[in-house]
Design goal:
Transketolase_CS, binds thiamine diphosphate, 24 helices, Rossmann fold, alpha/beta, five-stranded parallel beta sheet, EC 2.2.1.7, binds 1-deoxy-D-xylulose-5-phosphate, binds magnesium ion
Amino acid sequence: MDLYNIEDPSFLKNKSEDELKEIAQEIRKFLIESCAKTGGHIGANLGVVELTIALHKFYNSPEDQIIFDVGHQAYIHKILTGRINQFDSLRQYKGLSGFPKLSESEHDVWEAGHSSTSLSAAMGIAKARDIKGEQFAVVPIIGDGALTGGMALEALNHIGSDKTKMTIILNDNEMSIAPNVGALHNMLGRIRTNTSYNRIKYDVEELLSKIPSVGSSIRGVADRVKDSLKYLVVNGVFFEELGIKYIGPVDGHSFHDIERALKSANESSGPVLIHVITKKGKGYQHAENDEIGTWHGLGPYKIETGESIGSGGTMSWSEFMSNSVFEHALKDERIVALTPAMPVGSKLHKFQNELPERFFDVGIAEQHVVTMAGGLASYGMKPYVAIYSTFLQRGYDQVLHDIDRQKLNVFFGIDRSGLVGADGETHHGVFDLTFLLPLPNMVVVMPRDEKEAKLMIDFAVDYNGPIAFRYPRGNILGVDMNEERSEIELGKWETMQKGIDITVISYGPTLTDVLEANSALKEKGISVNIINARFIKPIDTDLITEIAKSGQPILVVEEAMLTGGLGALVQSYVMDHDLGTTVKRIGIDNTYVEQGSVSELLEEVGLTKENIINKVLEILSNEKK
Ligand SMILES: Cc1ncc(C[n+]2csc(CCOP(=O)(O)OP(=O)(O)O)c2C)c(N)n1
Ligand SMILES: CC(=O)[C@@H](O)[C@H](O)COP(=O)(O)O
Ligand SMILES: [Mg+2]
């Protein structure tokens, strides 16, 4: 079978099981080879090869709506819907997205990137279908990790009570990114190991099918026996009690078993959940043996050895942050660390292994993690919540209502602040300032390099109140740790270079570009006053006033949304206090930034040394007029 000839999934309809197995094998081989070059979410995809093929054989996409939760496991779906030729560009600039994308194919009916949205989306689609009197199938596929997300549970609550027809595929591989956690995970584990129920249930169903309809009273008794079995051996009771018919566990690598379950689900008039058991990384030894979560998603690798290509170098920001907080925790018993399912990305292993009683992986539960940190803080602890900027969006009300309003002593490590690269528009950490800066009690900081990070971590640990500590994806800028630095003082900025023509204010790693632009501007005889706004909030109002009174125009450069960013704060301060000086900004202007390498994306949004130079020249030339 030439995978490159696939245009749509209809070719699967008349394939025999042996042929399907062959296709699965070819797809696996392709995925392993292709992701070795581009990187990507290989582990999750290798686990759903048979499942995705079986779904596309059984259903008629796009009329039947197949909805992938998170969407990181939709590569096979992309291959079966005619996109194999684009895999060379997977997750690259202008290339094939790593997630379902409406603009890529009519078969992508729902976009995601963040987890646990599929069931709510499915409910909406199913309701629209019913209101319009249409008949198609609605099939959300949700992982055991994504099922721990609060939204998924809210949706189950609604779907079960409403009895809306849909077939939910629960893809249980026992892994979130890291090994999955929580009581739901434990419950699924019990079901997986409880084979006796499954055997009895199938036997009883088999028996029931043989009872003729005339024997209705016998059949009634038998039905009740079958129903009561679930109470005896607990399988699926959780879902059944919610009003959702449970089928499973089903071997997710067996075409026969999946098809049998899909047929059975299809006959039901209400919601059904098929519990499918799969192996993450299936068919590729390195990914299959992964017990940590490294193979969930990664960059290019060597196929034979599984070694990563091109990673390494200096320490990542995440590792530096987590290790530094861990060092503090060894001395300060108030410090506890929390993560919503991201111990791998946030590099919390040291904390997790050495201080397990003060470490909490709460699963994909951003709202819960924030408020739980509040509870810990309210009782004298110093919680460190390592959370990706993009996922903190989920916990915003909790940050506002529970933490900031009560001035609780929570230290947020806001990982992946700024542009993240290949994951694209669902994952860039560029909105957090817009939602954090209005909070009256929140302090927001972002260090520019390793030395400043160390000083700021010391500050944040000592600080008593909510503090958001932003840091980007990628490696930390290493410097001489003995270098002299001005003391970190709440709301005070650092003057990195005194100048007389224009002030450029920035923070974090973007300052490197500002410093580079400065070298070129110096050659043109322009003297730049360079300010490190290490506190993005509170801003240094004394310094802004002093600069404005000196008559210098100001340029604020930031890797964040312009709306509600630092530049906006500085502009309003200058305006509100009639300081009269010009304030211009470079940042992300009212757009969702796509996927690509961070440098390509910085170029696209104008966050480059060249653009800073041009903007400075433009401002100075306008000032002269
Ligand atoms: C709201 C949110 N939090 C965290 C993540 C990061 N994340 C992406 S996939 C994933 C694990 C999902 O596990 P599961 O649903 O079981 O899928 P699997 O990879 O095992 O197939 C996590 C935590 C996310 N995408 N969205
Ligand atoms: C799909 C998802 O949300 C995660 O797998 C994400 O891709 C991880 O990103 P990092 O590689 O930055 O940890
Ligand atoms: Mg999983």
